[in-house]
User: What shape does this take?
Amino acid sequence: MDLDVFTLFPEWFDWFVAQRHVRNVLDAGTRLRAVDLREHTPLRGGRVDDTPFGGGAGMVIRVDVVDSALQAHYGTDPVTLRSSRRVIALSPSGRLFDDALAAELADEPALTILCGRYEGFDERIIEHFVTDTVSIGRYVLSGGELAAMVLCDAVLRKLPGALGHSESAVEESFSDALDGNPEYPHYTRPASYRGWPVPEVLLSGDHGRIRRWRTERSAARGAGARPADGVGPPSAP
Ligand SMILES: C[S@@+](CC[C@H](N)C(=O)[O-])C[C@H]1O[C@@H](n2cnc3c(N)ncnc32)[C@H](O)[C@@H]1O
Assistant: This one.
């Protein structure tokens, strides 16, 4: 996969690409580049934003700045770029990011991610350069960088080579393997701690029983049978 993140803070991604699971996928051939939106700005002094037409607080990222950054990086008109790769603008009001979208994006050969700042993007950027707007939740962050890392992390860990042998992205919360349900509970040593025993079935060595128990527990969590797990509906007051 070829992943480009356009941002005003490319150095934030130095830390991200140094993390082991990200390094693993990069070593296996995926490319992740953080591209500075300021680098090709046509405005003086590295400026990228301007005041909103119609008034109001805050600054807006200019369409000519994003046009120049995309043109310079891809050598093509950004209006046509989106027919060859998904171009995602991060926005609090975009399509909510979930495991299904992560899996969909993990199948793409190339992704471009635009990180907003200030009041966000001039709407013409969304209308003419972008294929998707994506939100990582219904709250407002100061910028798209953390959202981009969330998206990249969830997508990259689905790619071959991201996880070690002892980890698996196949049978995880919300995966097809669990019928879209949350994952079952895990336990490890000690088998009993402060009088809290591990469920007997997990110590039985009976793999059929263990599998059935896990499937039931996962389905029960999905049905909200145990709100205390934090994945069901809120408990009644
Ligand atoms: C301060 S926010 C802009 C908020 C915008 N004025 C609004 O009310 O929707 C600046 C940038 O952070 C990013 N951002 C903030 N919250 C986000 C979220 N929940 N999901 C994805 N991106 C987000 C977006 O790229 C956005 O353009």
The CA atoms of residues 60 and 175 lie 38 Å apart. Residues 90-93, 115-117, 119-121, 135-137, 139-144, 147 surround S-adenosylmethionine (CB under 6 Å). The longest strand covers residues 86-96. The helical segments are 12-17, 20-27, 63-74, 78-81, 99-106, 123-129, 145-156, 207-222.
